[in-house]
């Protein structure tokens, strides 16, 4: 089987999970990398056209040029994990909101604005805001805006750096101080707890949860996300609130760093998809 990994991070080939999976796959299959880091979408497509189409593409990058080449490849009949449309829905937080609402999954009330400056100029809209709120970039990207704000003054203070950024505002839903981190590889769920990053000085250390410790409701919600977004590889962040579990983020094709057994599960999925292909 010929496998191509679409990537944009120079650390990916040395990643503690991805690198091990690639090494195991390379022992039995042909594996190559398409690094789009310094390429435009057009250049990435032109570079890929010099190769025979791979049996399976792994879309590890969510950079615009990576999504562009993935879209082109799908139009040529290529098999991509995760698909272009699934990956885009996890980058565009309003698309994510629409799909969450359509699937009736627990998701915070969300509003979109063309820019932070646009919101700050709308006094009527500002007067209706109920603080605290969560503010995020409308499009998920490395180094994007994600913050908890308590007042108009804090919102205004973001303007010098983020004024032109398309944003969403979400209702703040108090949790129990922990994020539930869930990772899925072909319906196999891995889970851990981590202190919420919105708390000052919060530890980033994960406390692993066994499958037996995973409540059925969390598993049901997590797998329903995969079905709604047509994802094979993804990560989910849940908050535990008084209203029950609340989804706060979905990541198409995370790195699975620190997830025991993720490399074996990743290899098994890729080889099964190759056989089906």
Automatic annotation (TrEMBL):
Q: Which UniProt keywords apply?
A: ATP-binding, Ligase, Nucleotide-binding
Has keyword Iron? no
The Gene Ontology biological process terms listed for this entry are: SOS response
Q: Which InterPro entries match?
A: ATP-grasp (IPR011761), ATP-grasp_RimK-type (IPR013651)
Q: Where's the ATP-grasp domain? A: 97-276
For molecular function, the Gene Ontology terms on record are:
ATP binding; metal ion binding; ribosomal S6-glutamic acid ligase activity
Q: Which PROSITE patterns match?
A: ATP_GRASP
- Output the SUPFAM superfamilies linked to this UniProt entry: Glutathione synthetase ATP-binding domain-like
Q: Which domain of life is it from?
A: Bacteria
Gene Ontology terms: cellular component:
cytoplasm
Q: Which Pfam families match?
A: RimK
Protein name per Swiss-Prot or TrEMBL: Alpha-L-glutamate ligase
């Amino acid at each position: 089987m010929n496998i191509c990994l679409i990537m944009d991070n120079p650390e990916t080939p040395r990643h503690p999970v991805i690198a091990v999976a690639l090494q195991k796959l390379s022992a039995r299959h042909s594996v190559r990398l398409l690094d789009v880091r310094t390429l435009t979408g057009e250049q990435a497509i032109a570079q890929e056209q010099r190769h025979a189409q791979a049996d399976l593409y792994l879309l590890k990058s969510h950079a615009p040029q990576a999504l562009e080449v993935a879209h082109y490849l799908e139009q040529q009949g290529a098999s991509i994990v995760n698909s272009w449309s699934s990956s885009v829905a996890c980058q565009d937080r309003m698309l994510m909101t629409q799909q969450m609402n359509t699937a009736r999954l627990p998701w915070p009330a969300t509003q979109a604005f063309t820019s932070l400056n646009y919101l700050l100029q709308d006094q009527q809209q500002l007067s209706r805001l109920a603080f605290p709120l969560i503010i995020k970039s409308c499009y998920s990207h490395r180094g994007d805006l994600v913050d908890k704000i308590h007042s108009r003054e804090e919102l205004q203070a973001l303007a010098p750096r983020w004024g032109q950024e398309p944003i969403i505002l979400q209702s703040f839903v108090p949790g129990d101080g922990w994020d539930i981190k869930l990772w899925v590889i072909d319906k196999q769920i891995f889970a851990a707890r981590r202190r919420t990053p919105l708390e000052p000085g919060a530890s980033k250390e994960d406390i692993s949860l066994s499958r037996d410790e995973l409540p059925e409701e969390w598993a049901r919600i997590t797998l329903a996300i995969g079905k709604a977004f047509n994802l094979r590889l993804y990560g989910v962040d849940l908050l535990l609130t008084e209203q029950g579990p609340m989804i706060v983020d979905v990541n198409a094709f995370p790195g699975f760093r620190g997830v025991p057994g993720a490399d074996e599960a990743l290899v098994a999925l890729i080889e099964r998809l190759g056989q089906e292909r």
